[in-house]
From TrEMBL:
Primary site of residence: membrane
Lineage summary: Eukaryota, Metazoa, Chordata, Craniata, Vertebrata
Name of the protein in question: Acyl-coenzyme A thioesterase THEM4
CDD domains hit by this protein: PaaI_thioesterase (cd03443)
One GO term of the biological process aspect: apoptotic process
Protein's gene: THEM4
UniProt domain Thioesterase: residue ranges: 138-210
Superkingdom: Eukaryota
EC number: 3.1.2.2
Length: 230
């Protein structure tokens, strides 16, 4: 019994050891999911500066209404975002983890936070790529770039449309991204046609001077049940 609970407890989140209370609990998940998109010790000064900058836009309800900005929390599993528990029982024993949040060491993988502006249908992701995401020597892997683009555009699509999936992603890699350098990922909705939402996205250096990547994507809103064979 303890071993089973301990295994589930160990799956709660990076850096978290199963506690005695958790091991004894019949419910394996933390009641208050951890938001991973907050500063940790690996964040550079520039990452913190940008986080503070965008957080300030979200600070008060009044500011949110005028500027429309809010920070989107980021958990380490998708189902934490889904409303209701209808499908949870099929997933509850799985060790599924969100791809961008499955490296436990702070700063080694994807360090990022997504800020949304629902009124303008835009988002900004601040992103600090870690050393485990290497592609060319000292630089970010193209697949990791695609991942953070997919996650950023997918988060904006999800916030605006509800459940949706990437149908198409086109990426132009313009200049390599050094590991550890903080970059900005600007996403926007270009057009919506029924279930289809067309997005575009740019990755730039944090001062906006250097263009690293450009992308377009198509998202289709879906019935979540389809994913579970309903
Ligand atoms: C689930 C959320 C939970 C909440 C969690 C929140 C977590 C928040 C943080 C994480 C954020 C991460 C975000 C990651 C997002 C992914 O990475 S999703 C994973 C990668 N994507 C996939 O695996 C999708 C695989 N493809 C499919 O399942 C299906 O093809 C699709 C995309 C659902 C579409 O199938 P369908 O619904 O049957 O649509 P279909 O009838 O084929 O086409 C509808 C229309 O779209 C057009 N269309 C379809 N595909 C295409 C295409 N590729 N190109 C152009 N047009 C197309 C069709 O031509 C058609 O057009 P019209 O004739 O209506 O004009």
């Amino acid at each position: 019994m303890w071993r089973a609970a301990s295994r589930l407890g160990a799956a709660v989140g990076p850096g978290r050891q199963p506690t005695r209370a958790l091991a004894m609990s019949p419910w394996p998940f933390s009641a208050t999911p951890r938001d991973y998109s907050v500063p940790n010790e690996s964040w550079s000064r520039e990452m913190r500066r940008l986080f503070d900058h965008y957080s300030c836009l979200c600070d008060t309800e009044e500011q949110q209404q005028s500027a429309g900005w809010c920070k989107f929390p980021s958990y380490n599993r998708s189902l934490k975002h889904a409303a209701g528990g209808k499908y949870l029982s099929k997933m509850v024993q799985a060790k599924a983890r969100l791809f961008t949040r499955n490296i436990e060491e702070p700063g080694a993988g994807f360090e990022y936070a997504v800020f949304l502006n629902k009124q303008e249908k835009t988002s900004v992701t601040i992103f600090q790529p870690g050393h485990l995401l290497e592609g060319p020597p000292g630089h970010l892997h193209g697949g990791a770039i695609a991942t953070i683009i997919d996650s950023s555009t997918g988060t904006l699509a999800g916030a605006l449309l509800g459940p949706s999936m990437t149908a198409n992603l086109n990426i132009n890699y313009r200049s390599p991204i050094p590991l550890g350098n903080v970059v900005l990922i600007h996403c926007k909705v270009d057009q919506t046609e029924g279930r289809k939402t067309f997005m575009s996205c740019q990755i730039t250096s944090s001062d906006g001077d250097k263009l690293h990547t450009e992308a377009t994507g198509l998202f289709l809103s879906i019935n979540l049940g389809r994913l579970f064979g309903a």
